[in-house]
Each structure stands twice: as C-alpha cells, then as structure tokens.
Amino acid sequence: MSSPPAAAAAGGRRRTTIDLAAVGAHPSAREAAGVRAEARRAIHPVKVAWLPVGEIDETPPELNSRTVYDEASIAELAASVAAHGVLQPLCVRPAGARYVLVFGMRRLRAAVRAGLSEVPCTIQVADADRAFLLNTVENLHRRPLSGAERVRAIEKLAATDLGVREIGRRTGFHPATISRWLKIDRRPLVKAALEREVLDLGRAMALADAPEEAVPALLEVAPRLPQDELKARVAAARVLRNATPRSVDSRRLLEALRLLTLVQTVSADDAALVEQLQDCVVRLRMAAGNGLD
What we know:
This protein has helices at residues 6-11, 29-43, 71-84, 105-114, 128-141, 147-158, 164-171, 175-185, 188-195, 201-207, 215-221, 227-242, 248-261, 271-292, and strands at 46-52, 56-57, 90-95, 98-103, 118-124. By secondary structure, the protein is an alpha/beta fold. Strand 3 and strand 4 form a beta hairpin.
C-alpha cells in the first residue's frame, strides 16, 4: 500500500469535512454536504482513506498510553517506509477540518521523516474515552508498553467507570491481572519504583500484595531476588502481620519466620544449617499434627 488507490488519484477529490458544531439552521451547500458526510461516517464509522500528513495531529499525551518512543527504531522504520511505503493504515478520528491520530504514532513520524505527503488511514468516529481505549489496546498488543505505561493506561481506563471485567474483555487481559495492576497504583512506593524502572512489572505486582509497613524493606531487596522468592517473602510478611501469637512458642516461630525473610543468599558453607532447618521444620510439622489428634 505504497501509493493512493487509482480512483482517488485520478479524481483528485478531497474528502468533505465539516465542524458540526458550527452548522447553523440554514447550512450552505458545502455545510449540507459535510453534514451528510458526517452522518454517513456515524452509520459506517470506519473507512480507509489517504490523508495528507499535514492534516493529521499527533495523539494528545493524555490520550496516548505510550509515553516513550525510541528514535532509533523510528529511523529504521522511516527507511523501510521510504522503500516500501506504509504497509498498515494509521487510525485517526475527525476533529473539525483536521484529524487526530488515535494510534500509529511511530508510523506517522516515520512517514514524515521519509518525506511522504499522504498516508493510508482508517477513520474512526470516537470520543476521547474510546480513542484512548483503542490506543491502549493497540499498544498493549503491538510493541509492548513498559510496566509503568501499562499501569497508567489501566488506571485511566478504570477512571472512565469501566469495571475490571469490562477492561479485561476489551483489552484481552485477565481480570485478575487488571486488578493487580490497579493495586500497584494504590502503592505509591511500588509505583514510583516501577516508573524509575527499579522494578519490573512482575516484581511490582508481587509487592503490591505486601503489607504497607513491609514494603520499604522488601523494596531494598526485590530487584535482586528471583520472583518466586520475592512472592514467598511477601507471603511471610502477610503471615507476620495477621498472626496473633497465643503462646511463647508462637512468638518464637514468628520471630524465626521474620529473621528467615531477611536472609538474602545461602552459600555452600551454609548447607549444614539449611539441613538443620529442614529437620526442625519436619519436627515441628509432626508436633503440629500430634497436637491436632
């Protein structure tokens, strides 16, 4: 799709656009034609057209789930576009006499850099909320968003009064995953670490389940821990928070658990200690079983 369709090129006819808010009670012929065009787009909201790049405004930051674009990858794409054209249409929505990009920022910038005057676009009639949803879905399933970008995007979708299940249905992600991403947003320390790229999304999701008072200490070690071990420490912290010692031995067990969660590495010299711990755990399990008889 490196050049406009023959009919469009031969006819040279520009697509009629109109700002419906500016049409009065007695529209001119041009305004009447524009109203009919907008009505057709409302009934058939998606169509493909070749549009001048100068008439397309970039996606506003508040409606774009992606915040970072790699200039090197755009330069590579521009070289491909110069050789082969834009192979997949961008998505835009009408905005008066112009268009606003819904998704396809890398393709638009690459097309401009390659010197193209027109690009193929699907035209979607959409309000701001739907435009952001379409942008998020496209970015989630194309070049992966960063962990922080995913959390911000889901947070913004949730603010439109969409429920977790509906967001999951529209984006293709499991509702449980959506819930955990939203939980990160309620943990300022975890969210800040994710945005600074100190944590990846998987570790941030694990820390979102930790008791608030345990988060600072866990954040110190989380980047160095395997994810499974981090989850185990979060589970231990939850046990420590919720447990109510009823005896001296219960308090001793809780203290032992607290100390074990602080251990970061185990060397070969500690193998004998680990075996002793395993023996202790077996003995305590047998004692617990006898106590239930």
